[in-house]
Design a protein that fits this description.
0% of the residues lie in helices and 45% in strands. The protein is mostly beta strands. It starts with a strand and ends with a strand.
Length: 149
């Protein structure tokens, strides 16, 4: 990103070039994760629900059951806003309340993570669904990372 501003007769420039990288060990403690789910999804019926306590299946056909969630990332590849959160059995995590949401603009990317122990704890049956809502047919890439135990 480059910013420019005119000040008197000078045209100073300020460039920001930053890359962030985080290594995560495999395990169930602080700074670790041992479960990962990702999907290249398409919005159907207005919203897609992901039950992080046992209702999602990974690319190898294995059921993913997270007792702690450490990472949520969404890339909106669609042409309309997408909304994360606000399901009847919403996984509250960092949202603060079940009805709270985050809006990701078209072409936008949202990511948040918590490598503390414990991380965000979903409640089986009543508070374990991460919802991605938007316009039918819009596509996205969702990544959820966490711990099994």
């Amino acid at each position: 990103m480059t910013g420019r501003r005119t000040i008197g007769i000078d045209n100073p420039t300020d460039e920001i070039k930053q890359t962030y990288q985080q290594s995560v060990a495999v395990g169930t403690g602080s700074g670790q994760m041992n479960e990962m789910f990702h999907v290249n999804g398409t919005i159907a019926g207005g919203a897609n629900d992901y039950d992080v306590r046992g209702g999602i299946v990974d690319a190898l056909g294995q059921t993913v059951t997270m007792v702690e969630v450490c990472l949520i990332a969404l890339k909106n590849n669609g042409v309309a806003n997408m909304i994360i959160g606000n399901d009847a059995a919403a996984f509250v995590a960092f949202f603060g309340a079940a009805a709270h949401t985050v809006t990701v603009a078209p072409g936008g990317f949202f990511m948040i993570w918590n490598l503390n122990d414990p991380a965000w704890v979903p409640v089986a049956g009543t508070g374990d669904v991460l919802q991605v809502a938007g316009t039918n047919g819009d596509t996205f890439h969702l990544i959820i990372g966490g711990r099994q135990a």
